[in-house]
């Protein structure tokens, strides 16, 4: 076999993979990272024969050169590509070329795939994996995890949160054994109402089994040891407000604050709270008391530095700017603000989530996409819009979708949006038709 | 084998050796990567090494040799990766011309695809007339941009909820208007930014208030937009592109009758420096409307006609349905609402009755007594062919050179099939980059019609 002639001092490297000669530069190979097989090819001239499939190698080399997947990779199953990329130690490049959050085009999302779940339980909650757009789905007492390619899955048995005391930390990678169970100190058998995390901490909202006290525990994420306790409420008498446990915990990275929210529905209406906690000093920075048109769901967008809620009465989306915390009536309505009777319940079950620069709100079976109109005026052009910040709505509702079930959860990861619906034993995957190759 | 004593060059692409003539490589632009690599240097006999994929380079090299893509390449390589690779080697203009459709022939065009935006898919306005073959669709309150290869290159959400007119005013900027909100608004689509707005106001006339935009046309000297007040007072404004301020008010009128209603269509004719505006109202007794031509420098009306009322009496009851301008030949085309006949007028020789009517008794074409569906509605002119829509049906007028009489003979043919026409009323036709784009009322997406020199042979075995 003849290698094409190259000058000896050049940085061109010849590799023989399964009998086929590939040539590339040392720079391209070192891109792959120090612990990959590619970078070893640079240094050790003796290992420049690799006993693997040359066609798969050419696809991986293409990814290293351009960052994209070539169209001919459609001939392979993605599982083979994953296997091969693991062999060479460059799986992260494959993930990046297939499911990068920069490929997420909110305006161009289409329902592209369905992930069926086995068993009879419809999903109760979903959470994206730490990177790449995989998904954990809790359905019944099982957790099914899909990896970033959505091709591989693993299912473990786990106990639910609101009917079972304590927070279970489950090792999903190693067969799903319960590594530890975290309980609220001093109080036995308290149920978990919400979980949240930052890069350092794990936050858990507990409510005692007699439902007369609740608290948020802060754990160190690596050691799982309790660090502090915030937002502790004990109920004395008929003070309903303090009896509401927090059901959503969100870490706001840009402000180093924890947003906690909880609501309670009673015959006299829905009331709730949104609180912002400085975890280190254990101080409550701001509290929004929700008495009229309480939220049915609330979320925070770090990129827009804005908190969004859906009103349970009006069903409209409201926002408040994080930079103006502390104002009296913080919510600014994005829809039509009409006087509504307090008995209306248009926003019940609406979910709101933010991803990137966009906010997604589910209403019934449809999804609304809210995005900000950015202004950059030229010359002495006049500004035509009165509002301080302009958000506008798009709806994904198509005629074909109208007969579908109510949406019960939204999650985002990589370039995907995941949607679960009531009584459906599957997860919808929404993606934009990618400009590159999708497999 | 053709004798060729030209200088040859060897390239090592990813471990594979390619050999070609220097003249082949240098047919690309001189500052491309490939041209730079083939300059004889001290490499000696060792081929220049390029760290790219050899399989795609084989296609790129064939593109350089023959000027076209190998027929099987579309199945093996994606459009996007060919584009990326052509960009790397600096030959994207060659690839662009190889990937463009054949010259658009109305008599031989077929529906190749429908472009549907993901959300709010019913287009309310679109534009494709700018030179670079891209398509901008306004749908809902969004503008989606599709590049020359018709791949989606971005969507911008505007503050309007309903965009009913869109015009491209710079390479990356759009002027948009809405029938439900006042003003003409400018958006930079590459940055996704709102740039500014222009309103028609008059400090001496309080009636001029909340004027809405009905039509927009772009020219080198400014943007022309027709504004319509709630009291039907209307006017065409010339808007300076750098300051977005009103530079001139042209042809203000009361809007009290069909002859003075707001222009729904504006066309700028750069060769004569004229602005053509037209409006047609469709009622139970047929169409009535006008064509008016302004000289924007003097702000005077150069010529106008209104129908019914002027022209030959034999055309009674057969008023114009729509007007378009052949900008290259300076010909004004109108389509008669009832008969579907084509009226032509030379913009340089307009007079009392400049119209030359052509009718076609082509038995395959439209029969006037075919009933239902309404009259002709939309006409668009592209590459010396005139497209006309009647309800959901699409026809084209094309000309045949007649060497004996001198004048070209014009013939009318259907472009579409019967099953195409039942999809809905055609609301707008535009063409650009040898593609024709058609939108239909209440239909999602914009249809793309192209001509192709290859038959779609179907095997029935």
From TrEMBL, chain A:
<dbReference type="GO" id="GO:0009737">
    <property type="term" value="P:response to abscisic acid"/>
</dbReference>
<dbReference type="InterPro" id="IPR015943">
    <property type="entry name" value="WD40/YVTN_repeat-like_dom_sf"/>
</dbReference>
<dbReference type="InterPro" id="IPR011047">
    <property type="entry name" value="Quinoprotein_ADH-like_sf"/>
</dbReference>
<dbReference type="GO" id="GO:0016567">
    <property type="term" value="P:protein ubiquitination"/>
</dbReference>
<dbReference type="InterPro" id="IPR057441">
    <property type="entry name" value="Beta_prop_At2g24240"/>
</dbReference>
<feature type="domain" description="BTB">
    <location>
        <begin position="11"/>
        <end position="105"/>
    </location>
</feature>
<dbReference type="InterPro" id="IPR000210">
    <property type="entry name" value="BTB/POZ_dom"/>
</dbReference>
<dbReference type="InterPro" id="IPR045068">
    <property type="entry name" value="BACURD1-3"/>
</dbReference>
<dbReference type="Pfam" id="PF02214">
    <property type="entry name" value="BTB_2"/>
</dbReference>
<dbReference type="InterPro" id="IPR011333">
    <property type="entry name" value="SKP1/BTB/POZ_sf"/>
</dbReference>
<comment type="pathway">
    <text>Protein modification; protein ubiquitination.</text>
</comment>
<dbReference type="GO" id="GO:0051260">
    <property type="term" value="P:protein homooligomerization"/>
</dbReference>
<dbReference type="InterPro" id="IPR003131">
    <property type="entry name" value="T1-type_BTB"/>
</dbReference>
<protein>
    <recommendedName>
        <fullName>BTB domain-containing protein</fullName>
    </recommendedName>
</protein>
<dbReference type="Pfam" id="PF25279">
    <property type="entry name" value="Beta_prop_At2g24240"/>
</dbReference>
UniProtKB/TrEMBL annotation, chain B:
<dbReference type="InterPro" id="IPR045068">
    <property type="entry name" value="BACURD1-3"/>
</dbReference>
<dbReference type="InterPro" id="IPR011044">
    <property type="entry name" value="Quino_amine_DH_bsu"/>
</dbReference>
<dbReference type="GO" id="GO:0006886">
    <property type="term" value="P:intracellular protein transport"/>
</dbReference>
<dbReference type="GO" id="GO:0005829">
    <property type="term" value="C:cytosol"/>
</dbReference>
<dbReference type="GO" id="GO:0051260">
    <property type="term" value="P:protein homooligomerization"/>
</dbReference>
<protein>
    <recommendedName>
        <fullName>BTB domain-containing protein</fullName>
    </recommendedName>
</protein>
<comment type="pathway">
    <text>Protein modification; protein ubiquitination.</text>
</comment>
<dbReference type="InterPro" id="IPR000210">
    <property type="entry name" value="BTB/POZ_dom"/>
</dbReference>
<dbReference type="InterPro" id="IPR011333">
    <property type="entry name" value="SKP1/BTB/POZ_sf"/>
</dbReference>
<feature type="domain" description="BTB">
    <location>
        <begin position="7"/>
        <end position="106"/>
    </location>
</feature>
<dbReference type="GO" id="GO:0050832">
    <property type="term" value="P:defense response to fungus"/>
</dbReference>
<dbReference type="InterPro" id="IPR003131">
    <property type="entry name" value="T1-type_BTB"/>
</dbReference>
<dbReference type="InterPro" id="IPR057441">
    <property type="entry name" value="Beta_prop_At2g24240"/>
</dbReference>
<dbReference type="GO" id="GO:0009737">
    <property type="term" value="P:response to abscisic acid"/>
</dbReference>
<dbReference type="Pfam" id="PF02214">
    <property type="entry name" value="BTB_2"/>
</dbReference>
<dbReference type="Pfam" id="PF25279">
    <property type="entry name" value="Beta_prop_At2g24240"/>
</dbReference>
<dbReference type="GO" id="GO:0016567">
    <property type="term" value="P:protein ubiquitination"/>
</dbReference>
């Amino acid at each position: 076999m003849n290698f094409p002639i190259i000058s000896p001092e050049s940085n061109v490297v010849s590799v023989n993979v399964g009998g086929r000669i590939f040539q590339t530069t040392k720079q391209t190979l070192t891109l792959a990272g120090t612990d990959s097989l590619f970078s070893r090819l640079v240094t050790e001239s003796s290992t420049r024969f690799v006993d693997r499939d040359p066609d798969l190698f050419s696809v991986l080399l293409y990814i290293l050169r351009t960052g994209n997947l070539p169209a001919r990779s459609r001939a392979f199953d993605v599982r083979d590509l994953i296997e091969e990329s693991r062999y060479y130690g460059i799986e992260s490049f494959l993930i990046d070329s297939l499911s990068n959050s920069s490929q997420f085009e909110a305006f161009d999302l289409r329902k592209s795939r369905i992930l069926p779940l086995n068993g009879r339980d419809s999903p109760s909650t979903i959470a994206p994996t730490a990177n790449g757009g995989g998904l954990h789905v809790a359905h019944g007492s099982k957790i099914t995890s899909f990896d970033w390619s959505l091709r591989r899955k693993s299912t473990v048995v786990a106990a639910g949160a609101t009917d079972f005391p304590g927070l279970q930390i489950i090792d999903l990678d190693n067969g799903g054994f319960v590594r530890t169970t975290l309980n609220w100190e001093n109080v036995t058998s308290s149920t978990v109402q919400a979980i949240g995390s930052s890069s350092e901490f794990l936050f858990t909202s507990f409510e005692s089994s007699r439902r007369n006290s609740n608290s948020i525990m802060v754990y160190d994420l690596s050691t799982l040891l309790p660090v502090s306790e915030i937002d502790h409420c004990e109920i004395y008498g008929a003070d309903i407000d303090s009896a509401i446990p927090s059901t959503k915990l969100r870490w706001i990275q840009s402000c180093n604050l924890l947003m906690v929210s909880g609501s309670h529905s009673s015959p006299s209406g829905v009331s709730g709270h949104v609180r912002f906690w400085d975890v280190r000093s254990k101080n409550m920075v701001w509290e929004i008391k929700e008495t009229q048109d309480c939220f049915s769901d609330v979320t925070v967008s770090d990129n827009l530095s804005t908190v969004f809620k859906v009103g349970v009465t009006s069903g409209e989306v409201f926002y408040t700017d994080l930079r103006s915390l502390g104002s009296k009536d913080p919510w600014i309505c994005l829809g039509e603000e009409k006087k509504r009777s307090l008995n209306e319940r248009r926003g019940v079950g609406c979910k709101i989530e933010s991803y990137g620069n966009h906010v997604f709100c589910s209403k019934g079976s449809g999804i609304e996409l809210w995005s900000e109109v950015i202004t950059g005026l030229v010359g002495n052009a006049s500004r035509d819009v009165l509002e301080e910040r302009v958000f506008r709505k798009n709806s994904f509702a198509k005629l074909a979708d109208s007969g579908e079930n109510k949406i019960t959860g939204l999650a985002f990861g990589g370039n995907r949006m995941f949607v679960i619906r009531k009584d459906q034993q599957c997860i919808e995957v929404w993606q934009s038709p990618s400009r590159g190759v999708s497999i | 084998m053709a004798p060729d004593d030209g200088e040859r060059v060897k390239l090592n692409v990813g471990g594979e050796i390619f050999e070609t003539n220097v003249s082949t490589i240098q047919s690309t632009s001189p500052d491309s990567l490939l041209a730079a690599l083939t300059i004889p240097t001290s490499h000696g006999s060792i081929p220049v090494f390029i760290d790219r994929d050899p399989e795609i380079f084989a296609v790129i090299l064939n593109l350089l040799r023959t000027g076209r893509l190998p027929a099987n390449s579309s199945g093996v390589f994606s459009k996007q990766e060919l584009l990326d690779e052509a960009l790397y080697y600096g030959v994207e203009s060659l690839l662009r011309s190889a990937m463009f459709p054949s010259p658009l022939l109305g008599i031989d065009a077929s529906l190749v695809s429908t472009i549907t935006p993901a959300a709010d898919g019913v287009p309310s306005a679109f534009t494709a007339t700018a030179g670079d073959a891209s398509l901008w669709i306004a749908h809902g309150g969004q503008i989606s941009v599709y590049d020359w290869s018709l791949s989606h290159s971005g969507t911008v959400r505007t503050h309007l909820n309903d965009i009913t007119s869109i015009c491209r005013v710079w390479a990356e900027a759009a002027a948009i208007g809405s029938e439900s909100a006042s003003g003409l608004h400018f958006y930079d689509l590459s940055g996704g930014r709102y740039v500014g707005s222009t309103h028609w106001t008059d400090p001496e006339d309080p009636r001029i208030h909340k004027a809405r935009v009905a039509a927009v046309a772009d020219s080198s000297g400014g943007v022309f937009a027709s504004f319509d007040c709630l009291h039907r007072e209307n006017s065409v404004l010339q808007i300076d592109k750098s300051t977005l301020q009103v530079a001139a008010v042209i042809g203000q009128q009361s809007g009290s009758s069909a002859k003075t209603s707001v222009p729904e269509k504006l066309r700028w004719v750069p060769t004569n420096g004229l602005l053509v505006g037209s409006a047609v109202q469709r009622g139970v007794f047929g169409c009535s409307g006008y064509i008016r031509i302004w000289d924007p420098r003097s702000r005077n009306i150069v010529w106008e006609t209104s129908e019914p009322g002027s022209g030959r009496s034999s055309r009674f009851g057969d008023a114009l349905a729509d007007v378009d301008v052949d900008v290259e030949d300076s010909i004004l085309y109108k389509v008669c609402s009832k008969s579907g006949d084509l009226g032509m007028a030379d913009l340089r020789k307009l007079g009392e009755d400049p119209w030359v009517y052509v009718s076609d008794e082509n038995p395959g074409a439209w029969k006037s007594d075919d009933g239902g569906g309404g009259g002709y509605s939309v006409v668009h002119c592209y590459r010396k062919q005139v497209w006309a829509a009647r309800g959901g049906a699409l026809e084209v007028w094309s000309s045949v050179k007649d060497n004996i009489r001198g004048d070209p003979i014009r013939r009318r043919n259907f472009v579409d099939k019967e099953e195409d026409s039942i999809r809905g009323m055609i609301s707008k036709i535009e063409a650009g980059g040898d593609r024709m784009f058609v939108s239909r009322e209440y239909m999602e997406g914009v249809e793309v019609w192209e001509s192709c020199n290859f038959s779609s042979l179907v095997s029935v075995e």
